[in-house]
Amino acid sequence: MNLLIGISLLICVYVAGWYQLHGQFINLGFKKYEYLLIFLSVPNTYVSIRAIKMICDHFEGAVWPNRILTFCIGLIMFTILSYYHFNEQLGLKTLTLIGLAGLIVTLQIVWK
């Protein structure tokens, strides 16, 4: 259960982080209030720390599974949000990489 909650929290962290970084290209409010985004990054960091702890606990203290999962989740969320907001098309190379990232996440969770 900790793994599922940790991954869900990381998805939220990556979505919030994506908007903090790329929101300036979507809405002028992000650019106008960029200093406010700095303060909003503090709770995002705290949630990230808690999520990593949950995932680390699931994998009995191993830190590499965290790195692999965070990389793959970040890649997948970046792809989804960039496609949705900027209509960036997914080529064969990008689709292959996303598929491999999904396979890596699956292996990381299933293979202990």
What does this molecule look like?
With 112 residues, the protein is mainly alpha-helical. Helices cover 83% and strands 0% of the residues. The protein has 5 helices and no strands. Helix 1 (2-22) crosses helix 4 (64-86). The longest helix has 25 residues, at 34-58. The radius of gyration is 15 Å and the shape is flat. It starts with a helix and ends with a helix. The mean pLDDT is 89.
Approximately what portion of the residues adopt beta-strand conformation? under 5%
Q: What characteristic shape results from the CA principal axes?
A: flat
Mean pLDDT: 89
Q: Helix count, per DSSP?
A: 5
Question: Could you list some keywords that capture this structure?
Answer:
112 residues; flat
